[in-house]
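Pilot study result, target chain (146 residues):
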Amino acid sequence: MKRALLGLALSLCPGLLMPVVPASAQSLDAKRFASVLEAARGYAADQDIIFYCLRYTKEQKPYLFAVLHAHIQDARVKLKAEGADYAQEAELVRTVLANVHFYPADASDAALDKRSTVEEVEKNYAQLGAVSFSLIQRPAFRAAVP
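Predicted structure:
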């Protein structure tokens, strides 16, 4: 009876017979991963200016954090599906979070003020323009991780 159940289980789940390759033994090749990090830096720069421009909106701040978290998680899932290892996932997260600043409501920066005016960041963000694209929607990310 046990043997019959084992045979049934193996026939229903043939993956049980395949060797398991630990995630640490896999990784995304260096060229593709460099493109992912390029996309992550661009994404972080856009998120940084969004956080700066919307720093005074108490109602939106929690959503900005939630969106940032969701975008990073979506990118991690796609990376993992493409064979990225844990170190590469961590580097992606580190690249984004090291380049996004969370500004107090009274922050003032002339360069960021100028950039937000020139690029119409608030309007662009509200209209779901390029500045609001998630990490996995960025061309460099999509080229590296289809």
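One observation from the pilot: The two ends are 46 Å apart (CA to CA). A full batch analysis is planned for the follow-on phase.
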